[in-house]
Write a structure and sequence with these properties.
The protein is of the alpha+beta class and about 270 residues long. The protein contains 7 helices and 10 strands. It folds into 2 domains: about 180 residues, Ribonuclease H-like superfamily/Ribonuclease H (Nucleotidyltransferase, domain 5, 2-Layer Sandwich), CATH 3.30.420.10; about 55 residues, no CATH class. Helix content is about 30%, strand content about 20%. The longest helix is centred in the last third of the chain and has 25 residues.
Length: about 270
């Protein structure tokens, strides 16, 4: 297991997305079917994944799929690739990953004998959207269309969602190429979407990952201007506004005098 260490340039932030194969089941109809375990002909598995490190160039998007595997249902090599990335990451960014991507990967990891990757913080853009906004839809397709200028979630061209998976399973190389483009663009759109949502999200304190005393915005910028103060029950901190993304952050030093801190502490323990 890779050992994470303090990084003077900040945390390693991984953006990723997975695609899974459909289950194949025996059934007697197409409406309101309850499929028993003994009706499962082929269980789901990971068909492909795409990932990139935050702020890396777009051509640095990583990708793996099952197109060249003799046994397409054996996703162990593919899992090893994404496991290594998760093991390196301090923070991961997903769209609906708390409900889908991470749980699905964890299921495949344990079924294939993997240990858990090193712990990481998880930012889910869908949850940011649900918490702070009342969008018509919290889907990546809608939010990237409305908020992103360069990268938007790709629409299916030659193959619909299910048809693309079906044709990939049948060995159609055109479908695999579309799958790769689709998966990569999901990651690029997700990265751009996250940069739009950054000012609204305080789930991860990125300053904790920097060794020096300099204040750094969650977007990685050091272009900060003073913007009043931030108060807690026992502290006063300099507050900053990022000139690049608009996020607020606070300094690390408690600006209260020792006497004031002692007085506040005494009043809170009575």
């Amino acid at each position: 297991m890779a050992k994470k260490s303090a990084n003077p340039k900040g945390p390693k932030v991984l953006i990723f997305d997975i695609e899974t194969a459909p289950m194949l089941n025996y059934c007697w109809g197409i409406w309101e079917q309850n499929v028993g375990l003994n009706q499962i002909r082929s269980d789901w598995y990971v068909l492909s994944w795409s990932a990139k490190w935050l702020h890396d160039a777009p051509n640095k998007v990583m990708y793996m799929d099952q197109r060249n595997e003799k046994n397409i249902e054996d996703d162990s090599k593919l899992l090893k690739g994404i496991w290594k990335l998760l093991d390196e990451a301090d923070v991961v960014i997903t769209q609906n990953g708390r409900s889908f991507d991470v749980k699905k990967l964890n299921a495949r990891f344990i079924l294939n004998g993997f240990q858990p990757p090193s712990s990481y913080k998880h930012i889910d853009t869908k949850l940011i959207a649900k918490k702070h906004f009342g969008f018509t839809s919290n889907k990546l397709e809608y939010m990237s269309e409305k908020l992103c200028k360069k990268y938007k979630k790709q629409k299916h061209s030659k193959f619909s969602g299910f048809e693309m998976s079906r044709e990939c399973l049948a060995g159609n190389l055109k479908a695999w190429k579309e799958m790769e483009k689709y998966n990569k663009y999901d990651v690029l759109a997700l990265e751009e979407l996250y940069t739009k949502l950054i000012p609204w999200d305080n789930s991860v304190n990125f300053n904790l990952y920097h060794d020096d005393e300099e204040n750094v915005c969650k977007c990685g910028s050091i272009q900060l201007i003073k913007n009043g103060f931030y108060y807690t029950n026992v502290g006063k901190y300099q507050r900053y506004r990022c000139k690049d993304c608009g996020s607020e952050t606070r300094g690390r030093a408690n600006l209260l005098s020792k006497e004031k801190k002692n007085a506040l502490h005494s009043s809170t323990v009575r």
